[in-house]
Amino acid sequence: xxxTTDRVPxxxxxxxxxxxxxxxxxxxxxxxxxxxxxxxxxxxxxxxxDQDLVINAEEEIFEMNxxxxxxxxxxxxxxxxxxxxxxxxxxxxILVETTGMADPGPVAQTFFVDDEINRKTRLDGLVTLVDAxxxxxxxxxxxxxxxxxxxxxxxxxxxxxxEPGELDALEARIKAMNAAAKVYRTQNSVIAMDRILNVGGxxxxxxxxxxxxxxxxxxxxEWGGVYSLKAGDYTLVMxxxxxxxxxxxxxxxxxxxxxxxxxxxxxxxxxxPVAAVSPIGPGKRLLEVALPGGEVRLSIRIRQxxxxxxxxxxxxxxxxxxxxxxxxxLAAIESHAYKPDHEHDDAxxxxxxxxxxxxxxxxxxxxxxxxxxxxxxxxxxxKGVLAIKGDxxxxxxxxxxxxxxxxxxxxxxxxxxxxKLIFIGRNLxxxxxxxxxxxxxx
Length: 442
Description:
The protein is of the alpha/beta class and 442 residues long. The chain folds into three domains: 4-210, 3-Layer(aba) Sandwich (Rossmann fold), CATH 3.40.50; 223-337, Jelly Rolls, CATH 2.60.120; 348-438, Hypothetical Protein Yjia, Chain: A,domain 2, CATH 3.30.1220.10. The protein has eleven helices and 22 strands. The chain has helices spanning 21-30, 50-53, 74-85, 104-113, 115-120, 142-149, 164-177, 204-210, 261-268, 361-375, 430-438; strands at 8-15, 37-42, 61-64, 93-97, 121-131, 153-157, 182-185, 223-229, 232-238, 245-252, 274-275, 287-290, 296-302, 306-312, 322-325, 328-330, 334-337, 348-356, 379-386, 393-400, 403-411, 418-426. The longest helix has 15 residues, at 361-375. The protein is globular and about 80 Å long. The protein starts with 7 loop residues before the first strand and ends with a helix.
């Protein structure tokens, strides 16, 4: 194994939508720190825009925009890190910028649970940006809470938009959540590099305090138990609980619970659960039991005696769920409570629009003004790269709620002139936004 000093330091940059991550990324890439930095960035949405907003960094950027980096693309993260290690001589540092919808815990976990990555990299720190102006609107979301709780360094950004008294109260609230993190107040994400790079800040022990199951993988189920069953009929009895439905899978478990997890994961990966309306048996299929209120009884038919594992989406205790056999209530011979798969706000979505051609600046200003006035509260983030008629330079913009900031960028040169933008928020009307933007073409 190489010495610890040879392991590449990695900083994970996180923060809710619009907190200033891309601005900080540009600041890092243009600062005079002498480091060669490889950047891995992720976007929430079907249209990748961030790479177009990052200046002079074409060769260092690795972009993933197929989902939340803490969920669907963790395998991509490991793959890209592995490929980066093959060209180790070309960089000194790795920066991972997550989507604003990411829980940083699973991202940080990647650097500990994958042996190859752990040997070649070291997690230096988690840097979280907090939008001082708008964070109160999203304070109750899991993402904001996790981003603050896991941080080693917190940048309280956009301080120029908030009164000093509000800043003091917000900082106190943050420190009440995470007293160990260093908090710096910033404008336009400007910060000295030695405060965010090579800080040696990530503490695994503290991460385990924040999340005792930090090193455990996330599964789409919260509980599994093995029962030794004879051939015959059984009944799973459930009461009303915190959710209107419960997904579950029953699989054979001749080698115990741990050996059955993979088959359960395959079962839970099915997109269309089978409604449990008739007696079920073990098999690779996902069942969904409606819990409209009161007692629900699910019939289970076992055709061959043996050990069977029942995996449930939620913990059985939440629904007073018990398995009844011919002689009464049965107890699992072994069971385990798993780390639940984290959830995002289902109401949050993205609308990406890509249209070739030039835009009429007057039409664009009127349309954007109307969108911000009527939908600003629901638009968490808006950003894009635009081609304005009569202007040889690209126009880049970013918006948070009703705040908008745009500027001319580098010339289009030989690149095809096109427009690419994305909206992230709640209650977004894809067709209306697309048609409205299309109406701005010259």
